[in-house]
Amino acid sequence: ELKVEQNPLFLSMQEGKNYTIYCNYSTTSDRLYWYRQDPGKSLESLFVLLSNGAVKQEGRLMASLDTKARLSTLHITAAVHDLSATYFCAVELDSNYQLIWGAGTKLIIKP
Amino acid sequence: GAGVSQSPRYKVAKRGQDVALRCDPISGHVSLFWYQQALGQGPEFLTYFQNEAQLDKSGLPSDRFFAERPEGSVSTLKIQRTQQEDSAVYLCASRPGGATNEKLFFGSGTQLSVL
Predict the structure, then answer these.
(1) What's the burial of A82, exposed, middle or buried (CB within 10 Å: 0-12/13-18/19+)?
(2) CATH architecture classification, B16-98
(3) Which of A74, A105, B73, B76 is surrounded by the fewest CB atoms within 10 Å?
(4) Chain A contact for B107 (CB, 8 A cutoff)
(5) Position A10 confidence tier, pLDDT thresholds 50, 70, 90
(6) Residue A11 contacts by C-beta under 8 Å, 6 or more apart in sequence?
(7) Which residue of A has its CA nearest to B58?
(8) What is the pLDDT of residue B30?
(9) pLDDT average, residue stretch A36-55
(10) Domain-by-domain residue ranges, chain B?
(11) CATH code for the part of the protein at A4-110
C-alpha cells in the first residue's frame, strides 16, 4: 500500500525565516505534485515534478524530487505572511492516474 | 468556463436522505476526478472519468455512491441513504487530457454535512 507522509504536519514560523517541508512516499513513482490550500478554498497547483532530480522554483518556494530516496522537499525562503496555507504533496501511482495525498502541512507565518 | 465549478457549495442532509453533487469542469477537459476530503486530511480518490467513460471507481466507499458523466462534460456524484460518515468535502478536479503528468484543476468543493 502506498503511503505518503508529510513532515511536519504543523509549522508556525516568523516572517523572514527559511524552512523545509518534507514528503516521503513508500513506493516507486516519478511523478509528484505540490498543492496549496487556503481555508475554505480549493486546491491550487504549485509544482509538478516529473523526474528524479527535478527542481522547480516559483517566488519564495522551491520544490525538488529525489525518486531514489522517495523524497520531495518544499523549501520556503524568507517567508512572508501571504504564504500561510496548508501545503499538500501528492504522489501519482506508476500504474495509474490516482493521486495519493499526504495529510498536509499547515503553515502559519507570523508577521 | 474559467474554472471548475461545483454546486451546491454547502449541503446539509438528514441521515438517510439522497444527495446529488454537481461538477462543471473546465470546458474541453477530458479527465475528471472526484475526491473526498475529510477535515484535516488530504483528499482521497473516489472515481475517474475520461470523457464519458468511468475508467476507475475503485475509491467509491460503498454501493451507495454513484457517479456519472453522461455527455463527457458535467458530472454528478450521487450518494444514496446518506450516513454520518459521509460528511466531508467532495472535490471535483479536471485536466485537459488523459495524460498522467498534467496538473489538476480543482473546484472549491461541496461541503456535505449529514445530521
Answers:
(1) exposed
(2) Sandwich (2.60)
(3) B76
(4) yes
(5) very high
(6) A19, A21, A105, A106, A107, A108
(7) A98
(8) 93
(9) 90
(10) 16-98
(11) 2.60.40.10
Domain ranges of chain A: 4-110
8 Å CB contact between B70 and B55: no
Over residues B45-79, the pLDDT tens digits come to 999 999 999 999 999 999 999 999 999 999 999 99
Grid cell in block for residue B83: 450516513
CA distance A47 to B101: 11
Residues in B closer than 8 angstroms to A4, CB to CB, are 42
State the burial class of residue B115 (Cβ atoms within 10 Å of its Cβ: 0-12, 13-18, 19+): exposed
| Rounded CA separation B48/B42 (Å) | 17
Q: How far is CA A81 from CA A17, A60, A84, A85, B96, in A?
A: 11, 12, 6, 9, 33
Helix (H), strand (E) at residue A88: strand A85-92
Helix/strand/coil (H, E, C) string of A48-83? EECCCCCEEEECCEEEEEECCCCEEEEEECCCCHHH
Is residue B96 scored above 70 in pLDDT?
A: yes
Contacts of B102 in chain A (CB under 8 A): 48
Q: How far apart are the first and last CA of chain A?
A: 41
The answer to whether A58 touches A49, Cβ cutoff 8 Å, is: no
Could you give the CA distance from residue B22 to residue B17 in angstroms, rounded to a whole number? 17
